[in-house]
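A reminder before we start the practical. When you read a complex entry, don't treat the lines as separate problems. The point of joint prediction is that each chain is placed relative to the others, so the output describes one connected object in space. Small molecules and nucleic acid strands, if listed, are placed in the same frame. In the example below there are two entries. Take a minute to note the order of the lines before looking further.
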Amino acid sequence: MSCTLGEVKNRADLIIYWGGNPAECHPRHFTKYSLMPKGKFVPNGRKDRTMVLVDIRETPSVKAADLFLQVRPGKDFEVVTALRALIKNQRVDKDRLVETGLTFEQLQDFAGILKKARFGVLFFGMGLSMTRGKHMNSASVLTLVAELNAFTKFVAMPMRGHGNVTGSDMVIRWTTGYPFGVNLCRGYPRFNPGEFSTVDLLLRGDNDAALILGADPGATMPQPAIDHLARIPTIVLDPKVTHTSQLARVHITTAATGISAPGTAYRMDEVPLPLRPPLKSPYPTDEEIVRRIRQAVQGKPPWLPNSNGKRRLV
Amino acid sequence: MELNVVKNATCTFCGCVCDDIELHANHERIVKTKRACILGEAWFKHHTAERLYPDALIDGKPASVDEAIEKAAEFLYRADMPLVYGLSNVTCETQREAVHLAEIIGGVIDSHTSL
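Here is the predicted structure of the whole assembly.
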C-alpha cells in the first residue's frame, strides 16, 4: 500500500520515518514532500502534521521530530510485532519489551498515535531494511501498515537512496515480471533473492563475466565479492574511472546521467520524471554503449543453453 | 559569457529526484544551482563536460570505444553466466537496453535493490 508524494503533501497528518535520516540523506524530503508543505487537507503545513522518528541513535533528523523513539539496534522486528499486537488490543508481555529499548507505555502511546491519524505514512529506510531481520523487517512494517487500514488510512514507502534505483525496479519488473535479481540463463526469467542476488552470486563465484553500469561495487561491496569481480572479466561503464574500473578488464567512459545524458528517472514514489541535462558530454551515453554491445553480441553466432548449463551453438 | 539556463532540471542524486532545480551552465560546467540541496549542488558541480578520462581502457591501457565495445561483447558472449549489475544511476532507457542485453547473453540482471 503506497501513494505518491503529492498525496503525502496534500493529505498526510502523521509522518513516520523508520530507520532513516532524511535531514542528511534526503535533505529536501521534509520541505518539498512530507513535513513542511501546506496541502489541501493539511492547510497549516507543519502545524497540522505529527512527525515520529524511529531510529537506533539520535541523528540530525531528531530536531524535526515531535516524538523520537530510540530502538535498541537490531530490535526493529520486535518493536513492530509489539505494535501490531497493541493496535489490536492484544496482550503484550511487558517484561519482554525490555530488550527493544522502549517501554510498554511508549509503545502504547505510539500505537494510539498510529490509530488516531487521519492519513498516516510510514517511510522506511536502510536502517530498517539492511539490519538484522533485513527483508523480514520490511515485510513486518508493510504488514503493520496494512493492518492499520482497519482503523484509518495508512501507507508505506521505502526511502530509496540512489537516483534511479526505483527506475531499475520498474523497468526490470515490466520487462521480466520481477523487480531485481533476475536470472535469464535458461532463456526465461527466474527470480530468487539470496540465490540470484549479486552479492550471493559473487561470493559463491558463480559469474564468469560482469557488466557494471551506474554503480561502483568496488567501493561498496564485501571484499570477497570484489575479489571475484577482479578474477573474472569485468566491464565498467561510468562517467569516471572508479574503484571498480581499476580492477576491470574494460572501462568505457560515458556521459553523466541527468547532467549530460538525457532520459527518464523514477522518483521514490514511482513517478517517472524527464531529465533535462544542461551540458553536452564529449563521451557517449550509457544507453548508446549498451545498445552497441548488444548489437555486437547479436552479430555473433547464436547459441542455446545446454542441459549441463553450458552453451551450445545452433 | 552567456550562460545556458535550464529551468526545472531534474536531480538524480538521491531517490527524491527533485525536478524543480534551476541550473546555470557554461559550455563545460554547471556554475550555479538554485533550489538544489547541499548534496544536489555537489552532484551537479562535480560532473563536468571536460574530457578528463580516456574514452576507454582495456586492461588499464587507453583504447578506442569501438575496441572496448568489441572486447566487452566478446567477454559477455563467451561467458556462461554473465552478470549485469548496477543500474541505479542510469536512465530507464539504458535499463531497458541492459535487460535486452542480459536476455541475449543469458545472464543475471540485478540492481542495488538486492543489497
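Discuss with your neighbour: The helical segments of chain B are 38-46, 65-78, 92-105. What might explain this?
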